[in-house]
């Protein structure tokens, strides 16, 4: 089981490194564009949205994992199962709320980042 854990960990680490390297390469390539200010500004907005998009679910994942582990560690498998169910329902509700919000303001979404 430890070998599987290492295999998944290395794959995840490589994936994160490739994502960061890709973003840095795109910034370096933006210098070749005609209007570099617009290119770099729009890419900065994209990275900012991407950061929020990752930070919020990651925080939720960590807190849910801790709660689940605490319930299992206390010898309460029923409560652990309930914690997982609550986590899934909460994630689904938040995802649907954000989907509806983005669909409702899709034509005005870009104006938040422009003059």
From TrEMBL:
Keywords assigned: Membrane, Transmembrane, Transmembrane helix
Listed GO MF terms: antiporter activity; xenobiotic transmembrane transporter activity
Transmembrane segments: 82-105
InterPro entries with a match to the protein in the record: MATE_fam (IPR002528)
Record keyword Membrane present: yes
Statement: the UniProt record of this protein carries the keyword tRNA processing: no
GO cellular component, one term: membrane
Family as reported in the entry's similarity comment: Belongs to the multi antimicrobial extrusion (MATE) (TC 2.A.66.1) family.
Stated name of the protein: Uncharacterized protein
